[in-house]
Amino acid sequence: MNALNTLGKNLRLTSYGESHGEVIGAVLDGFPAGFELDKDFIQTQLSRRKPGQSSLSTPRKEDDEVIINSGVFEGKTTGAPIHFQIKNNNAKPKDYSHLKDVYRPSHADYSYEARYGTRDYRGGGRSSARVTSGWVAGGALVQDYLLKKKAIQFGAYIKQIGLIKLKSEPKFYSQGEVDAEIVRCPNKEIASQMIAAIEQAKAEKDSLGGIIECVITGVPAGIGNPVFDKLSAALGHAMLSVNAVKGFELGGGFEMSGKRGSEVNDEFELVDGKPQTKSNNSGGIQGGISNGMDIVFRVAFKPTATIGVAQDTVNTSGKEVKLEATGRHDPCVVPRAVPIVEAMAALVVGDFFV
Amino acid sequence: MNALNTLGKNLRLTSYGESHGEVIGAVLDGFPAGFELDKDFIQTQLSRRKPGQSSLSTPRKEDDEVIINSGVFEGKTTGAPIHFQIKNNNAKPKDYSHLKDVYRPSHADYSYEARYGTRDYRGGGRSSARVTSGWVAGGALVQDYLLKKKAIQFGAYIKQIGLIKLKSEPKFYSQGEVDAEIVRCPNKEIASQMIAAIEQAKAEKDSLGGIIECVITGVPAGIGNPVFDKLSAALGHAMLSVNAVKGFELGGGFEMSGKRGSEVNDEFELVDGKPQTKSNNSGGIQGGISNGMDIVFRVAFKPTATIGVAQDTVNTSGKEVKLEATGRHDPCVVPRAVPIVEAMAALVVGDFFV
Amino acid sequence: MNALNTLGKNLRLTSYGESHGEVIGAVLDGFPAGFELDKDFIQTQLSRRKPGQSSLSTPRKEDDEVIINSGVFEGKTTGAPIHFQIKNNNAKPKDYSHLKDVYRPSHADYSYEARYGTRDYRGGGRSSARVTSGWVAGGALVQDYLLKKKAIQFGAYIKQIGLIKLKSEPKFYSQGEVDAEIVRCPNKEIASQMIAAIEQAKAEKDSLGGIIECVITGVPAGIGNPVFDKLSAALGHAMLSVNAVKGFELGGGFEMSGKRGSEVNDEFELVDGKPQTKSNNSGGIQGGISNGMDIVFRVAFKPTATIGVAQDTVNTSGKEVKLEATGRHDPCVVPRAVPIVEAMAALVVGDFFV
Amino acid sequence: MNALNTLGKNLRLTSYGESHGEVIGAVLDGFPAGFELDKDFIQTQLSRRKPGQSSLSTPRKEDDEVIINSGVFEGKTTGAPIHFQIKNNNAKPKDYSHLKDVYRPSHADYSYEARYGTRDYRGGGRSSARVTSGWVAGGALVQDYLLKKKAIQFGAYIKQIGLIKLKSEPKFYSQGEVDAEIVRCPNKEIASQMIAAIEQAKAEKDSLGGIIECVITGVPAGIGNPVFDKLSAALGHAMLSVNAVKGFELGGGFEMSGKRGSEVNDEFELVDGKPQTKSNNSGGIQGGISNGMDIVFRVAFKPTATIGVAQDTVNTSGKEVKLEATGRHDPCVVPRAVPIVEAMAALVVGDFFV
């Protein structure tokens, strides 16, 4: 039932704010009453997303401290909408004045201007990934709720950066395991290679893309509403709403298109008297409804559009120009997107539990 | 704004019906008044989807003749909801009684039963791809409208069947070009290999998956509503609603995750004084909004779950059993899904034009 | 979450059809699985709404037999959308050709033409109350569900016809009590006066309006979602969707605007240890949420717009003309609207219980 | 498409905040880009709503200065969601501690507790009319837009306070005419009587209800989406969302239920070659669609529930108690509700123009 800047049907997140405006915010509506607010967990997820957290990310410094000023009374949620607000402290709008009149390649400058006839050029304005801080705040509360009330956990991690791939089978990793390396790949050796690849791209004023894998454990069988509110479609919608995402696949995904039914069908067996599948090429969803196995999906991020390398482009006066972007940006946004993927997944799953 | 069995926000398709019920239907709401109904085009798209159309598809025979009995007056739409109905003539529910008590691997039997506590086992019931006939009927009307009123065209074709791939760049192909081969791949040689692969799988009572690529031409720049009603997310949602779909990617997609910004950024140039991109790795969408280039996406279908090869599974009495599916089914559904992909894409794009 | 031709958020009714088209229909989505279909009850409600049922209604004869052909398997609902269809057997479109070019006063002819640029003039087309037969079918199923599963009952009856008023306090009357008189007022004497008033209006080729009161018993405290999905607002929305309705009030309603707080506040007392209110001027809803008392509301219907008395009007060629409507119509629609009010109320209340 | 705390389909207002929390806020989504923000007009409407504005209202003092910190760039809207925030400066939560354990008659205390299992008792929390300040902020922007871009004007005024009625025909009055008297009735003599009635009720620690009439001029024919998104139903939904509202009627309303068709049908005539109606008992809406005449509706407010007179009630420990409310409240909220009615009407009408 996603519409404009609201995601979700019964649990609904409404997002507002711009990269270099005063604030980023979100209103979470439909959240159950009586849940004890754990602001620390929300702040942790925001810190995993925030800029300047490691040598791999943009030098923009933001505390990203969240203010929660409605929907909570005496430390517990009341059932009223919950408002999250994050200040933009380190906004430097002037850094972006050189972009006022130019369309950055593979950025949203041109399409926003075509859509709205105007554009807030300061750091991408509304099209910036900075607005996802509000999503992470709201989603983190839902993650916490689903963990404590439903024993559902969200574990996202880096599967691929550039051409460096984590080849092991999908598996739930704890936050500690994922965050052991700044690149958020739960394999020390692969992680080192990924870090090196990002640093090299950065040194060359270039950028890299990557893939995040997410494993959700504890979702019981029977979640999802076919035919147009399938759990898979809702997850896909949420992930394709994240900045720089260009692909989404579930379980065996694209690779499964090259296989035969007999190779990839998930045969059932009884485990402790309950039907389970021997393999999980379905990614935990069959016919749009969860089947009780881990939910497994991958999200493809393109390389950061903003690069220092000179590029051809066009300006608003209709002239062809060269652009060498300055301003602050990430050589690879994917490690910072791990908590975003978790938050969005939690919002989607949570919608079926309120 | 998709909800339960309704897709879309301003142009809304509500779907009903089951595989072996009496009818399949759909109500299309929000369609503009005064448009002359071209029932032939709708029937053509239904015929491209219908079973029994070639040696590659299930032997189930259905005319799939559409009845349109509301929302049209004196040959033109009135602005009232349009009701499409297709009879299930060749339903043979008894063919399926052997499946009443067993969960077919990688099918929706188990998850539906977990969700609803009951299940219409006749040919998959509501989870069957047969229900997409209603989607195709409604979507085809929208396709026709967008072509005649907005010069927007939808061209889907087979990109991959099993491991046989069409390697050429994405491009709009006419229906004639696509349908020249029964497998709907617009390259005679590749098509022959695909057909051979399907026939071999069929001979071995097995099934194959594949990938459909869709190119939409004529969408002007400026279509899409960030942040949660992005054109890309809406397309992804619609495609992930289609039966057997396990992945969706836009433009450069997953492959782009392995690249650098300098390799895949779409530089702008002026063509006839208008900004265009030299490459189209963005797939025509930037920041969730169309940029005026062709919209390009791919949809990954897993192999048909129903196969004749013996498989392990579990029955409703909690026993492990062997299953060799009989009943009628397609060794590869992907060629028949071409008009479904077009219809769903038309419903999504049309939503922004009513 | 009502949109276009769909009412409801989680339990959603999508309506289609025109007065003199082939069919009227509705799709009910979100209805729980496993409920045994009682087609007789649905048919009863349809018969209470159908034309030609008594001397007070239009002579148009319709059986209004409902076909239910999806969402039900082996006599029980499956959780899939349920499709209701009613044939228009006695459509006489030719009766209406004299209205093709003229705007009937206080009818929807002119506004529909302004909205859609076209109009199905046959008996009002989409704007006819005939389309409510689909609403009654869907709503009746929900009524039956709420009675059997939640002990919630809907009792609507005539409160006023023209200037004849039933002055007793709101109270739940059984269907038998309400239907004892053809005018559906549960007081024999007042009913006779109402019937006489309608017959006199009919004799004078004129029409009468009236008021329906509805009492819902058994709704527990705590139903409703402030601030924009209040139970009261949802009921108002549904009632104001019914043809010819011009007003809605809850509990003490408009009269309460002339009173003081000390006169109309509903004081609490304990009854069997549970808080109840001594009076029920709130109509069972406080702050948009039910308080456990009977829900009481009234719906104001204007007199039937179509009358035989000569009226001034304008035609589509921009000429002023005289109109003396022929065709079949009710001198007073209100008695037939009783099951419509119940159906709509059931759809609204049911939305909070699925 | 109203859902939970969001009103509207294409133009959507999401509300948050509580009476004695830190802030009240709203996010307005879907508002067109490029509109110059007139903060003064918004502030004017907020001042018309704010407490302490005259001797008739609660002594609570709030500046109600609005902060707008997203969706606006260089003084103009950008198409991004617009965030409005109003601080609660004069919150005195302690004033309300005596209400913590008691259910105020005809207030939302008991029903909120039944709904959420908890309750923010400080001044009504989320159920307080204070949250409408966010609605007025968002609605005022839409009012300004509709005036400047579509020449549509909203004129609400007091029709009745207690038993004192303004008996003249509905008519558009300017804000100056309405605000000439603090009670907002555009008739000096009637206004004096109304003021006297309120002051008398206040002196007796009691409260009064009233009726607001609203006239919308300039809405062209053809606005509204039957059958479930009728302009009339959308207006009714919005008005019944306002605190203390117990009734809504359009044009001739309830009174028309006592009339004959020949008395109240709106005959068409040609005025400057365009069809108009001679009377306007339809209130500008026929079949749910505007007909180009003034839109006229009335909203019934019950008397303020909070009164100083002693009342019987029940506390949360299940004891019957006496309550004499202290704390700050209005003897009659209706004059302050004038800008709320205008704002809500603007949000509804605006939804059809974006």
Structural description of this entry:
4 copies of one chain form a homotetramer. In chain A, the strands form 6 sheets. Chain A has a 5-stranded antiparallel beta sheet, covered by helices on one side. The first copy, chain A, has a 5-stranded antiparallel beta sheet with strand order 9-8-10-16-11. In chain A, strands 5-6 form a two-stranded antiparallel sheet. The mean pLDDT of chain A is 94. In chain A, helix 1 crosses helix 3 and helix 6 (231-239) runs antiparallel to helix 9 (334-351). Chain A is α+β, with helices and mostly antiparallel strands. Chain A has a single domain, classed as Chorismate synthase, AroC fold. In chain A, a hairpin with a 2-residue loop joins strand 8 (153-161) and strand 9 (164-165). In chain A, 67% of the residues are buried. Helices cover 27% and strands 23% of the residues of chain A. Chains in contact: A-B, A-C, A-D, B-C, B-D, C-D. Chains A and B meet through strand 1, helix 2, helix 6, strand 11 and helix 7 of A and strand 1, helix 2, helix 6, strand 11 and helix 7 of B. Strand 11 of chain A pairs antiparallel with strand 11 of chain B, so a sheet runs across the interface.
